[in-house]
């Protein structure tokens, strides 16, 4: 099955075979070596030239676990979080801090609308109690790429901490973490890194990690300093998904061999192919080109055709697309091009899509 959903993604045979490596106890030195390899490769891939300034904290869980760990660990007593929300995953950020009543009124935007940096600046000046600003890099609700660099500059100018959810962004779209002085970035193995779900990570500035050690523990499992202290041993506080880590390590090898910039370019070319062919079929995109990410394109469901009919027709032919979410559930569909997909895979999908459209037209 060819997956055109934003994670889990298709992986290479090489990554899949890594799951078959020998059973391993996570308290043995061999696992400590595996963990250290993963951490080193994450820093090499995403903060090249600044590896000594960051730590990579690896945990077992989905990308959401990494995001929640970053946000909840980032806040000293008496301070608050300001969320920039323009999609389902912005909503999720707000829900995370809302559980602990740690938020100020969010900057709520229509889905697909990027934030105005000056409005963020004004909000931070109005709320001195805000310590952490949180935003999604690639908001997969619509495929929107948020202006991380511009917002990071504002947050830094106001002496606040910027936490970025780049679960669907890292290795898919460029992100200069060190250059933008971003304190924490959350990611996952199971999207543009092309590993399996179940392994996630947070890249943290080391100086900030030292500060976080004095902050309240708002979660036992997700408290980042707990991981950091034990990883220096090296160890890990809880039982990890060992085989998934094997595959994660292999996927990072593939990423570094290809090169992050080259992977981003490969995804960009794949997205361009999809968009050109969809345009030729008169499909209407939800976002203008300048707001689109490299790895997801959202389209309005063609008139006279339901999403379910479209999905089922494609799945019968071996391709899985993704529905809209929330108020867009019945209005749009999404096509992701992250993962180990070949040009042949994409051409096959586009041909199948044309067949489904033609079949629906004949029936109507």
Describe the structure.
The chain is an alpha/beta fold and 364 residues long. It has two domains: 13-258, 3-Layer(aba) Sandwich (Aspartate Aminotransferase, domain 2), CATH 3.40.640.10; 260-363, Aspartate Aminotransferase, domain 1 (Alpha-Beta Complex). Helices cover 41% and strands 16% of the residues. It has twelve helices and 14 strands. The chain has helices at residues 13-18, 29-46, 63-73, 88-99, 117-126, 148-157, 206-212, 224-231, 242-258, 260-280, 307-316, 343-363; strands at residues 2-3, 54-60, 80-85, 107-108, 130-136, 138-139, 144-145, 161-165, 184-188, 199-205, 296-300, 319-320, 322-323, 332-336. The strands form four sheets. The protein has a seven-stranded mixed β-sheet with strand order 2-10-9-8-5-3-4, with helices on both faces. The chain has a three-stranded antiparallel β-sheet with strand order 11-14-13, covered by helices on one side. α5 runs parallel beside α6 and α11 (307-316) crosses α12 (343-363). The longest helix has 21 residues, at 260-280. It is globular and about 65 Å long. The mean pLDDT is 95.
Structure keywords:
single chain; 364 residues; alpha/beta; Aspartate Aminotransferase, domain 2; Aspartate Aminotransferase, domain 1; 2 domains; seven-stranded mixed β-sheet; 14 strands; 41% helix; globular
By CATH, the superfamily of the largest domain comes out as Type I PLP-dependent aspartate aminotransferase-like (Major domain)
Care to count the β-strands?
Answer: 14
Principal-axis shape equals: globular
Strand coverage percent: 15-25%
Query: Low-confidence parts lasting 5 or more residues at pLDDT below 50?
Result: none
Largest sheet geometry: 7 strands, mixed
């Amino acid at each position: 099955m060819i997956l055109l959903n934003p994670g889990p993604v298709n992986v290479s045979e090489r990554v899949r075979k890594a799951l078959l490596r020998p059973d391993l106890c996570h308290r043995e030195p061999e696992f400590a070596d595996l963990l250290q390899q993963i951490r080193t490769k994450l820093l090499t891939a995403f903060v090249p030239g600044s590896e000594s300034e960051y730590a990579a904290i690896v945990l077992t869980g989905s990308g959401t676990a990494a995001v929640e760990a970053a946000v909840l660990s980032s806040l000293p007593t008496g301070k608050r979080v300001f969320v920039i929300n323009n999609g389902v995953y912005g909503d999720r950020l707000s829900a995370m801090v809302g559980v602990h009543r740690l938020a100020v009124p969010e900057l709520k935007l229509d889905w697909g609308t990027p934030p105005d940096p000056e409005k963020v600046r004004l909000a931070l000046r109005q709320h001195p109690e805000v310590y952490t600003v949180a935003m999604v890099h690639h908001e997969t609700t619509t495929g929107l790429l948020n202006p991380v660099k511009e917002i990071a500059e504002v947050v830094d100018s106001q002496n606040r901490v910027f936490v970025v959810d780049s679960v669907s962004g890292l290795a898919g779209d460029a992100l200069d973490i060190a250059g933008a002085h971003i304190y924490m970035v959350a990611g996952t193995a199971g999207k543009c890194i092309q590993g399996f779900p179940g392994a996630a990570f947070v890249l943290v500035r080391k100086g900030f990690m030292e500060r976080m050690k004095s902050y309240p523990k708002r979660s036992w499992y997700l408290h980042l300093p707990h991981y950091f202290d034990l990883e220096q041993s090296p160890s890990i506080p809880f039982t990890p998904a060992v085989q998934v880590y094997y595959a994660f390590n292999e996927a990072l090898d593939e990423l570094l061999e290809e090169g992050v910039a080259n992977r981003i370019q490969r995804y960009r070319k794949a997205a361009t192919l999809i968009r050109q062919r969809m345009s030729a079929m008169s499909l209407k995109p939800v976002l203008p080109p300048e707001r689109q990410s490299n790895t997801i394109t959202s389209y309005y469901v063609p008139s006279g055709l339901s999403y379910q009919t479209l999905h089922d027709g494609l799945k019968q032919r071996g391709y899985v697309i993704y529905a809209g979410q929330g108020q867009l559930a019945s209005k749009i569909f999404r096509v992701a091009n992250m993962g180990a997909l070949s040009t042949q895979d994409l051409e096959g999908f586009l041909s199948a899509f044309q067949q489904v459209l033609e079949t629906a037209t004949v029936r109507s």
